[in-house]
# Entry
Amino acid sequence: MDFDLSAAQKKRYAEILRESGTRLGEHRPDGDPDAVRRGFRTAAGIGVTGLCLPEEFGGGGLGALDTALGLEAFGRGCPDTGLAFGVAAHLLACAVPVRDFATDDVRGPLLKGLASGELIAANAMTEDEAGSDIGRLGVTARPVSDGYLLNGEKSWASNAPVAGLVVTYACTAPELGFLGLSAFAVPGDLPGVSFGPPLRKMGLTNCLAGRVTFTDCHVPRRYLLGAEGQGSGIFQHSMAWERAALFGVYLGLMERQLAQCVEHAGRRRQFGRRIGEFQAVSHRMAVMKQRLESGRLLLYRACWLLDEGREDKSAIALAKATVSEAAVANGLDAMQLFGGLGYLADSGVEEQLRDSLPARVFSGTTEIQREIVAKELGL
Amino acid sequence: MAQDEITERISAFIRDRFLDGDPQGELEETTPLLELGVLNSLNTVLLLAHIREELGVAVPSLRINPSDLKNVRSITAMVRELQHSAV
Ligand SMILES: Cc1cc2nc3c(=O)[nH]c(=O)nc-3n(C[C@H](O)[C@H](O)[C@H](O)COP(=O)(O)OP(=O)(O)OC[C@H]3O[C@@H](n4cnc5c(N)ncnc54)[C@H](O)[C@@H]3O)c2cc1C
# Structure
């Protein structure tokens, strides 16, 4: 067993960290769609929009572990976690299924656009009545000549308001229960696709999210991902990548945050000494470090297993739950360490907490991850 | 392992865990598990974990599809096939 990163991994990490810090370090999220599009292009310039896409289409050709490392460096250098999350969701929940399941007719051009950051993708699974349980989708796809007719509404798709491509899932065979789904990569400009306004939310400001509605939307067959009825397996595959690698962004956030806390505790003086000398303060940071490192080990291992072709649902679920819970707990600790300053918007500390809270919900809630772990234990 | 034994073990697990023991003895080899909602996404994780632990067969995620998981008969056929391809 070797816990060291290779020289190439360290070099790539350092480059992404440096470039994201230089180009996006001062980025102030304001939810402006044009700024988000520019952010995607900058991210593409740093190479993160295509980390795990084939090199022939402009990607980095990396596996899951290297992708997670790249996202970690990006999340650490770029304090705009909404942008980092949006880029990671674009890559893992959308470009990965296109990479692995799109038809030859559309795969190359789509991957090229996705890797370059010119084509932004949104993943639309969730519906008003289908959140944790995606067994009965209301969005349907009816086979018609040369394709499918999609109807229904998706209630939450990150990136949707700026998306040129929607990876979505629809019911093609209600009699097959949760396996009656098919997956599609739907160009956003097809007639019958409409996007709602950006949803108002608590954080991840520069990841614009919205509803997506399909009204008699004719999707040509070449945009079907995999075979009809394979949607559930494709979704699980994309979620394996997302749950394992996306949370690298949060490892990066926690790294940056902990460094800020250490710096603050070493500088701020009360009662005649640096607050870091109070054990109540220093131990808080020791626990923050412990959460970060536990999450890191689980996440690297989950990605490594994925790269080995061993899809270990339990390892992935443990990593996802641990990193997201750690991000929230560390976010609360950082607020406390910064005192009143932490509550001020300009400190960036309260923003880190707001950006971390949804991590326990998206990509499958903590409770669902624990259900998966329990089922894998045979319970 | 013989086909009958695999069928029996899988049926027994489904009866016990998903059908409250199946007191009326309704489960058959061709009972449509997906259509009846006996298998949902979380139950399937449990069934596949059982197949892995008890029958030593790891089912890859792309085999989680309607033709392989339709009923006890198709699941048995998939397990047999994967057992043979593993040796
Ligand atoms: C920032 C953000 C980004 C998102 N981006 C996307 C996106 O890009 N695409 C997309 O499709 N969706 C997206 N979502 C939606 C997200 O996937 C869902 O919110 C999530 O799956 C939970 O579904 P729900 O909100 O309907 O909650 P529910 O399923 O209604 O759950 C409510 C509560 O009940 C609990 N619960 C439910 N079932 C069980 C169970 N069996 N056992 C124990 N507890 C249970 C849950 O854990 C949760 O605490 C995003 C959400 C957020 C917050």
In short: The CA atoms of residues 331 and 353 of chain A lie 5 Å apart. The first helix of chain A runs from residue 7 to 24.
